Amino acid sequence: MCNPVSMNALRLAAAVSLVVLAAAAQAQPTFGNPSPNAGKETSQKANAAADQAIYQPVVYTNAAKKGPALIVLPGEIKSNNATFMQKFTSNNIADFGELELSAANFQVLERTNLGPLLNEFTLAYNLGDPQAARKFLGMGKLKSTKYIVKFDILKAEQVAAAQQGFDGRALGNMAGLLGVFGGSRGAAQAGTVAGAGIGSVQTSETTGVWIIGMRYKILNAETTEQVANGYAEEKMEVGTTSTSVLGVSQSQQGGVSLDTMVQRLVQKTVWDIDNKYK
Predict the structure, then answer these.
(1) Count of CB atoms within 10 A of residue 125's CB?
(2) Residue 112: exposed, middle, or buried by beta-carbon count in 10 A (0-12, 13-18, 19+)?
(3) How far apart are CA 278 and CA 270, in angstroms?
(4) For the chain, what is the mean pLDDT?
(5) CA angle in degrees (0–180, nearest 5) for 113-115-118
(6) What is the mean pLDDT of residues 62-77?
(7) Which residues on neighbouring strands pair with residue 233, listed in sequence order?
(8) Are 173 and 195 in contact (CB under 8 A)?
(9) Cα 52 from chain centre
């Protein structure tokens, strides 16, 4: 016959185990780092820089309030910057818009519901053709659409750049010459050693700053008339730094990527829409 105290202890242990297992089941998945440099100084520096660029969810002010039904159409990219144009399409930006508007509790209707008619639907709103727009809005889920939202990139350009560095070879040569003119063998050897040490020192630092600007437009789904618009800009800084002394070198490069900048601009504009147009 089991001791009542032992039975209570077993029940308590079982309950604790269930709580631990439930907590483990609800925890987000974690992943290892297979890099051979994991945990080393270079890894720590690179990860610290990457942490500044990782996706950060925005707490939208009116997220508790359900927003009207809307469709995000591909906007326009009016920048002529080749780097930006190679990396982005208007569909990429619309995808970010759908993600953030959903997070702000708007009823986002999938563009895929339009299927092959997406281009005609987009053209109807770009031309401000209410009759063509109404023809599409009579289809299924699209009947509940109140707004059409577009995000346009108006500016993407590098506006500033700066660089500085130090090359010790000239000073190293001077130190070697001073040793030679010192008048003794010891002075010459010391000058040679000092010159080699100073000459090995090389440092460089470069920084570039971009400005990216995004406009949003909200159109009445039935009339195609513009209901509202807004604009936001963000600075993007990218930089590199390197140092080399006596054959020992280190370098770093980093900054927020164009992808991250576009997503942050979408977050800023959606925050504005959430505050003003629910």
Answers:
(1) 21
(2) exposed
(3) 11
(4) 77
(5) 95
(6) 92
(7) 213
(8) yes
(9) 9
pLDDT recorded at residue 114: 72
Phi and psi, residue 239, nearest 5°? -150, 160
CA gyration radius, the chain: 30
- Burial category of 179 from C-beta neighbours within 10 Å (exposed 0-12, middle 13-18, buried 19 and up): buried
Token pair in block for residue 63: 């997220």
CA 91 to chain centre: 17
* Token digits of residue 15: 């309950």
Distance, CA of 222 to CA of 125 (rounded, Å): 10
Distance from the Cα of residue 112 to its chain's centroid = 25
The answer to whether 175 touches 194, Cβ cutoff 8 Å, is yes
In tens, the pLDDT along 33-64 reads: 787 878 877 778 778 877 877 888 999 999 99
Residue 21 pLDDT > 80: no
Residue 188 sits at φ, ψ, to 5 deg, of -65, -40
Of residues 115 and 144, more confidence is placed in 144
Q: pLDDT-derived band of residue 159, with 50, 70 and 90 as boundaries?
A: confident
Task: Give the sheet arrangement for strand 202-220, strand by strand.
Answer: 107-108, 69-73, 147-167, 202-220, 226-245, 248-255
Residues 10/12/15/17 CA torsion (nearest 10 deg):
-70
Please state, as a whole number, how many other Cβ atoms lie within 10 Å of the Cβ of residue 154. Answer: 15
Q: Is 206 exposed, middle or buried (0-12, 13-18, 19+ CB in 10 A)?
A: middle
Task: Specify whether the CB–CB gap between 192 and 147 falls below 8 A.
Answer: no
Contact 228, 276 (CB under 8 A): yes
Distances (CA, A) of 226 to 126, 221, 223: 11, 9, 9
Only one residue has tokens 């708007």, namely 106
